[in-house]
Amino acid sequence: MSKSVNALLPELESYIKEHEKTDISVSQKSIDWQLDHSLKVINAVCKVTPQSDPSDFRPKFNFMGFILLSLGWFPRGKAKAPKAVVTDKTSEYELILQLKEAREGLKKFEQIQPKQFFEHPLFGHLNKKKTKQFLYTHTYHHLKIIREISKA
């Protein structure tokens, strides 16, 4: 896959200075929430995926997952983020630390085996390739929201 979540990190970083900005006509959540959530997801996935046992990988076709990941698009307002990847308020300093952790985690992620996996609550087991697709699509989804809030 040519699209890499690594390529999105510099743009995410560029919005840290605007982290307190919000526009409820775009989203109920501010830029800091969008950044924090995106980085928390990257960091959580990069932490759990290398711990998975490839022999436990059980691919299961999920039509919705196939379509959304193939399109590289998630609809807005349809999913609820798990509590583990949500906070109400995040400081600029915390966002910078999370960004650093994401860069390090993504480097380590590249070393995992192809059948190591991330278990997504809707899409099921995602192998390395599909996990990379998910991370890109998810981060890009939130980046589009951030761009709109920033323009307001």
UniProtKB/TrEMBL annotation:
This is DUF1569 domain-containing protein. InterPro entries: DinB/YfiT-like, DUF1569.
